[in-house]
Amino acid sequence: MKSFGYAAHDKSSPLAPFHFERREPRPDDVVVAIDYCGICHSDIHQVRDEWGGSIYPMVPGHEIVGRVIAVGDKVEKFNVGDLAGVGVTVQTCMACENCLAGEEPYCTKGMVGTYNARDYDGKVTYGGYADNIVAPEHYVYSISPKLDRAAVAPLLCAGITTYSPLRHWKAGNNKKVGVVGLGGLGHMALKFSHSFGAYTVQFTTSESKINDALKLGADEVVISKDPVHMAKHAGSFDLIIDCVSAEHDINAYLNLLRLDGTLCLVGLPEQPVNISPFAMVTNRRSFSGSMIGGMKQTQEMLDYCAEKNIVADIELIGYDKLAEAYQRVIKSDVKYRFVLDNKSLKQ
Ligand code: NAP
Ligand code: ZN
Prior knowledge:
- Helices cover 24% and strands 26% of the residues.
- Helix 6 (210-216) links the parallel strand 11 and strand 12 (220-223).
- It has helices at residues 41-47, 97-100, 149-152, 158-168, 184-195, 210-216, 227-231, 251-254, 277-281, 295-308, 322-330, and strands spanning 2-7, 16-21, 29-39, 64-71, 83-86, 89-91, 112-113, 132-136, 140-142, 176-180, 199-204, 220-223, 237-242, 257-265, 286-289, 314-317, 337-341.
- The chain is built from eleven helices and 17 strands.
- NADP nicotinamide-adenine-dinucleotide phosphate binds next to helix 1, helix 4 and helix 5.
């Protein structure tokens, strides 16, 4: 199947128009004409090869919303014309204990990412900065017509990546939850934590984001560069979700956890993390991580958002602004997710 999109050809050149081929749809495949694709910081890490092993040319993008334009014979959930979404995962083994438990991102055979990955047949996967995508229906989500579809796109990664650990560690009434970093993931963590009823504190390095954080649902905002302000929260949090994309001091946040509190890392900076043993043993703290979320939970999150009217706060842009958007994300100047509008994708 012919596809057209934008690709990175190496780790430093700007993304450029790119013609490529996807597989012909199999019986369980859905073909989606893409209308919108969010820009995740993971796209930037991988384009710049910050995690190592990047495969070029690379068509990034795993926050995909569009319309179904074809379905294979065995597809049951989707018909041509339906709204549909694709996220970070496009294949898993569906036989290991984690897949069977609905925890597909932790597939023991290894999940296949939507781009910059090799599918089980060895072919490279290409993502959503493109006009179409093919994926098995198990990895395609139903999208409610109630919500602004462009603002739904970031839910497919930023949304589920924060919803999943907040549910796992039971954020809710009588819990004090911290969110570190107010970017794409952070602003969704803030919205969900507030919506679940937790007392939610946003940590930010950007004083200019204080008012926005309060509007997005924060009960308090802490400027993390201010040690006196940080110390006021020592030993008080049940859960902290760390959404920061760059190197920073984790111990400063571990020290804010109460007895049995958990710091969950979702941000993926390129450098290893330094942990103080004393910050861990004090208060019997846990340091953990979480990766996106299972397919069933992703649909649950999308349905929850439709019911509660939750979407991302976005800046909708054309492909002509892609390089500028990357630079702004790197400078933490994102309000709070860039989404590519495919109306600007011209061959
Ligand atoms: P983003 O929009 O760029 O947000 C990151 C935020 O981190 C910034 O807005 C900024 O917030 C803060 N920050 C940036 N540099 C910092 C520094 N040097 N020190 C302290 N704070 C800093 O990124 P994103 O798209 O939300 O992604 C966040 C991270 O999650 C990325 O590393 C991404 O790869 C990762 N990720 C992980 C998963 C997963 O499954 N675990 C899924 C998706 C993404 P303030 O201005 O408020 O300080
Ligand atoms: Zn992502």
